[in-house]
Amino acid sequence: MGAFIELQNITKRFGDATVVDDISLTLNKGEVFSLLGPSGSGKTTLLRILAGFIAPDAGRVLVNGEDITAMPPNQRPVNTVFQNYALFPHLTIRENIGFGLSVAKTPIDRVAEKVDEMLELVQMQEHAHKRPAQISGGQKQRVAIARALINKPQLLLLDEPLAALDLKLRQRLLIELEKIHAEVGGTFLYVTHDQGEAMSLGDRIAVMHEGGFCQIGQPAEVYEAPQTRFVAEFVGDTNLIDATCVEVENERNLGLSTTELGHIEHDLDSSRRAGGVFLANKAINLQPGDKAVLSLRPERLALRREPPPFAEEQNTVRGVIEDLSYQGSQTYYHVRVGERLLAVSKQHRRFLPHYTPISMHEDVWLSWFSNDGHLIITSRDQS
Description:
Blueprint: E1 3-14, E2 17-28, E3 32-36, H1 43-51, E4 58-63, E5 66-67, E6 78-81, H2 93-97, H3 99-103, H4 108-121, H5 137-149, E7 155-159, H6 167-184, E8 187-192, H7 195-201, E9 204-209, E10 212-217, H8 219-224, H9 229-234, E11 239-248, E12 253-257, E13 277-281, E14 291-296, E15 302-304, E16 314-326, E17 330-337, E18 340-347, E19 363-369, E20 374-379
Parallel strand pairs: 3-8, 3-9, 6-7, 7-8
Antiparallel strand pairs: 1-2, 1-4, 4-5, 9-10, 11-12, 11-14, 12-13, 14-20, 15-19, 16-17, 16-19, 17-18
Helix pairs in contact: 4-5
């Protein structure tokens, strides 16, 4: 793979509002790139600039090094799949898929051959004679994808294509999109506000907020090592704990203090650390006095009725179950610890004999290791 699409210092304003603010991005040939962000973050505006539907106020769009910023949409090697499908209601599924080729005056037998290929690809052969009103939302989306792919675009833009579908159908179509990409190749830019879709489909993710990029990286990198508080909160669930660095214990660990969690319970090794201080992995160069926020994912916290066995680099706190939600494969707990609630997810496994699930108002122990959390620096001590 190599650099294929380049966005250079793109800015777009609508009136006094700057919707896209001096953004630069490179897409590699053949990759699936997820553009993730909340509504109003600028992601759809950026997609429309790439498609040629709107022009940027500043910056350039390059494809294979060629400046296409002023090129009209119909001349770009780009096709778009919209959330609302944009199918022609008076045409059959076959006619909708082949519309672009027909407009380009492709020979009729060639159009028929290519449409047959697309119908097979999206598994819509049995519905070719129907009109859009006669098929389901998921089937309409597959038709829209087939219509976009039939011209073999170098870049396929997908603008929240699954947002209107139910969960099971979204999951099924995500798998189909992965198969389609494996078969046809090309570069996909997938725009979504759903972090699950972004992570499952994308080779890389850009998290967008208020017209700019907060972080770009592989899904695991963005989830496990968020660079900002916004990314940590937006991509998945997390507990964010404000803390101060009070000591550098060794080359690997920092001592952090936080009033939110109150006194750290560590009866098995009470001499090891003072109350209110816990260990965090020294992933960033914090020094005593610096402020940070610790991101602790709910699945990284161990939940027990009894104190956990002592282990090096382990933190332990006591709390009480204040709320719980049974979710089938897991139970989601809110545990009161000191001044705040910590979210904890406990995966359901085969129950041991005589085991009863932890329930409301029980006293519990939470534990995590120093490398289970991720530190995000917020300010430096200037003294």
